[in-house]
Amino acid sequence: xxxxxxxxxxxxxxxxxxxxxxxxxxxxxxxxxxxxxxxxxxxxxxxxxxxxxxxxxxxxxxxxxxxxxxxxxxxxxxxxxxxxxxxxxxxxxxxxxxxxxxxxxxxxxxxxxxxxxxxxxxxxxxxxxxxxxxxxxxxxxxxxxxxxxxxxxxxxxxxxxxxxxxxxxxxxxxxxxxxxxxxxxxxxxxxxxxxxxxxxxxxxxxxxxxxxxxxxxxxxxxxxxxxxxxxxxxxxxxxxxxxxxxxxxxxxxxxxxxxx
Length: 260
What we know:
The chain is α/β, with parallel strands linked by helices. The protein folds into two domains: 17-171, SPOUT methyltransferase, trefoil knot domain (Alpha/beta knot), CATH 3.40.1280; 191-257, Helicase, Ruva Protein, domain 3 (Orthogonal Bundle), CATH 1.10.8. Helix content is 45%, strand content 11%. The chain has helices at residues 26-38, 56-61, 66-71, 78-82, 105-117, 135-138, 158-171, 191-208, 217-231, 235-257, and strands at residues 17-21, 44-47, 73-75, 87-91, 101-103, 122-126, 143-145. It has a seven-stranded parallel sheet with strand order 3-2-1-6-4-7-5. Strand 1, helix 1 (26-38) and strand 2 (44-47) form a beta-alpha-beta unit. Helix 5 crosses helix 7 and helix 8 (191-208) runs parallel beside helix 10. The longest helix is centred in the C-terminal third of the chain and has 23 residues, at 235-257. The model has no long low-confidence stretch (mean pLDDT 88).
């Protein structure tokens, strides 16, 4: 359906980041970029695209959405791609059996408009075309985003998923952020700070022997990450937790190294 009129003013910028995790084809990146520009979105982040980047096939498939592709940023992993974000949503069609908030694109779009109006950055994760996001990816998000479709056939291609979420964003009204936190002199922690805490905490759990069973470690780690995601920690609270972990590990580390 043709609808390009370069003489008219466009609407871009200020929306959530669209994060494509290990997209498999350049064409799919291009059509996703086209869907983004349809809806006024232009922050495209790519995590390890299979066929490399830049990609000529993406340009051809974008059908003129070059401004989105030109701004696209490449990241080595999800942690790097979400580091500067405050709120992360994970798009999935399957039940992951996690204790995690779940929203439709419509409700998520209203919520994101409220967060962004309050100066809190947002992003949405989309997984590889064949498999979708894995559970460890979902555990890095605050909220699961699920499109209510035919339960017997809810499969979407990458561009369709981006377009549905983008359209809901485009038409959404700004809603107040839910349960707005009054953090005093400490701002809400961003994902980079939360991921550093996860690394420290999980290292301590390994040293203490709590994560001693390799077969149980992935699910236990995901559950703990989900718990702290729901806690909505501030930057000061995470610094306090780092100190608690260091204090608990201190005597054990001195004993193991033979120091006094």
